[in-house]
Amino acid sequence: MQQTLKAIVEEAKNAVSELAMRADFEAYKARLMGPKGSFTQIRKQIGRVPKEDRPAFGKSLNEVKTQLETLLAVALGKIERAEIASRLGPALDPTLPSPEAEPGSLHPLTQVREELCEIFRQIGFVVAEGPEVETEFFCFDALNTPADHPARDLQDTYYLPEDLRFSNIPQYREERYLLRSHTSTVQIRAMLDQPPPLRIISPGRCFRRDTPDATHSANFHQIEGLYVDKNVTVKDLKATLDYCFKSLLGKKAHTRFRPHFFPYTEPSFEVDFHSGHLAKVGTEWTEIMGCGMVDPSVFEAVGYDPEVWSGYAFGMGIERIAMILYGVDDIRYFYQNDLRFLHQFD
Ligand code: DAH
Asked: Is the bond into 267 cis (omega within 30 degrees of 0)?
C-alpha cells in the first residue's frame, strides 16, 4: 500500500504539470481527491490494515495528502496567473511611448460658479463659506421664517435626528440640525461673525427633499449674495444684477424685477433676464433668481441696527444658470459623470 501511495504522488507530479485550464484542473482534482478519486480509495482501506501498522499508515496518508494538496495549489496558482495575464494582454513594454495624456478639466458647474464669483469679486464682494450641515436657526429662524412656514415642512428639508450634535458646527441655542436647503444660511453666519458694512458672495451645495427629474435634484448648488451698508436701495440691487447678467451673457442682456415674497427680504422680487441676442437662450424672459432688500427682522436677529444699516440679498441656482448658458435641458446630466457630456466643457 505504501507503494501505491508513492505511485499516486509520482503520477500527480506529472499530471499537474500538464494542467493548463481550470476545467482540466477541477477534473483532475476530482479524479484524485473526489469521492471516487484514487487517493480517496486508498484512504478507505485503512480498515484492512493490521492494527499495529495503522498508526504508521495513517501518518503516511496525512503526509501524502499534504503533498497532493500542495501540488494542486501550485498548479491552480499557475492557471490563475495565466488567466490574469490573458485578460491583461501582453506584458508591459516599458520602451513604448506612453498613451496620449488625458488632462482633466473643470466641471461645468464649477466653471459657472467660478465665473460668477469672479464677476462679483470685481465689484468688491468676497467669498464667504458656511457648513452644509446647518441648524434650524441659521436656515430658518434668523431668516424670519417662522416655524409654521411651508419651507420648514419635513417635505422640503432633510432634518437630522433630534439628538444628533456636531461639535464643529455651532448651534445658536439648542436647535435641531438639518441639511441646508439654501445658501441664505451663510448671510446669518457672516453677519454674526463680522460687523457691517459687508459684501459677500457664497457659493455652495444645498439639499431638498425633491424627487429628481429634468429640472429638480435633491442636491444642487446656489450662490448667495449679501450687501450691507448705509443707504442701500433697490436701485443698487438692480444695477448689481444688471451688471452680473451683462457680464455673463453680453452687453445686450437685461433684467426685470417682479414682486414676490421671501420671508427675509422686504420688498422681495423674482428676477427675469432677457439675453437680448443669445439664440440658444431664446428670446423670452426667463426667471432666474430671487432677491430683495434685507428685512429689518433679519438685521435684528444678528444684532445689526436696522435704523442705521440697510442692504440687499439675492440667491440663484448654479445649475439653472449653467443649463441656460449651455442649453442643457436635463439637470441630471451634471451629476452622471459621463465623459461624453463633460468633454464638451473642456
Ligand atoms: N433662498 C432663496 C431660495 O432658495 C433664494 C433667495 C431669494 C435668496 C431672495 C436671497 C433672497 O438672499 O433675498 O430660493
From this structure: yes
